[in-house]
Amino acid sequence: MPAQPYHHGDLRRTLLEAAARSLETDGIDALSLRQLARDAGVSHAAPSRHFRDKQALLDALAEDGFVRMSAALERASGAESATSPAAVRARFDALARAYVAFALAQPTLLALMFGLKHSPDARAELIAAGHASMEVTMRVVLDAQATGAIGPGDAQRIALVAFATFHGIATLASGGLLDGVPADDLVAAALDLFWRGLQP
């Protein structure tokens, strides 16, 4: 059902954007539909048109986060298949850097996204949105195999290991656990090691 228009535009989008900002500055516990309504200049009941309760808001935040992350990965890695090993390596590097940048910009949201996606009662729409970002990674891996840049193998497994590697770097970096090593330097080193290990 399309969002109802309000005097300031799409209230659902306004609430999601405000909630994402609040999440990073104040945490999940401080997130409040009433406060979001006050900040948006609408009645305290208005958000219930879009989110029945706080959990519904958190689910929507997580799903929206995955959609935005997948879009960022798509933009970074390019829509067209690469035709040379160098081009596909550049796409892979851009994909990894885009993921880490997204994760470092909103670490609390990232934790929420993956936590809710893997919860026993996760919504089907949220799971599908989460899988989309992995599919972007898999396409780059398949293109790399097609150009001969990397050897054959289970593309899904390779994509998962890549995802886990860069997710781990981002998580350590956002927690200040890299012992002073800049995240960009570690990403560059991981890319080189990962790519070298995949070459035929």
Write a compact overview of the structure shown.
With 200 residues, the chain is mostly helical.
How are the elements arranged and paired?
Elements: E1 5-6, E2 9-10, H1 11-26, H2 33-40, H3 54-77, H4 85-105, H5 107-117, H6 124-147, H7 155-174, H8 183-198
Helix pairs in contact: 1-2, 3-4, 3-5, 3-6, 4-6, 4-7, 4-8, 6-7, 7-8
List keywords for this structure.
single chain; 200 residues; mainly alpha; Arc Repressor Mutant, subunit A; Tetracycline Repressor, domain 2; 8 helices
Describe this structure in words.
With 200 residues, this protein is mostly helical. The protein folds into two domains: 1-52, Homeodomain-like (Arc Repressor Mutant, subunit A), CATH 1.10.10.60; 53-198, Tetracycline Repressor, domain 2. Helix content is 70%, strand content 2%. It is built from eight helices and two strands. The protein has helices at 11-26, 33-40, 54-77, 85-105, 107-117, 124-147, 155-174, 183-198; strands at residues 5-6, 9-10. A two-stranded antiparallel ribbon has the order 1-2. Strand 1 and strand 2 form a beta hairpin. The chain is elongated, with a radius of gyration of 19 Å.
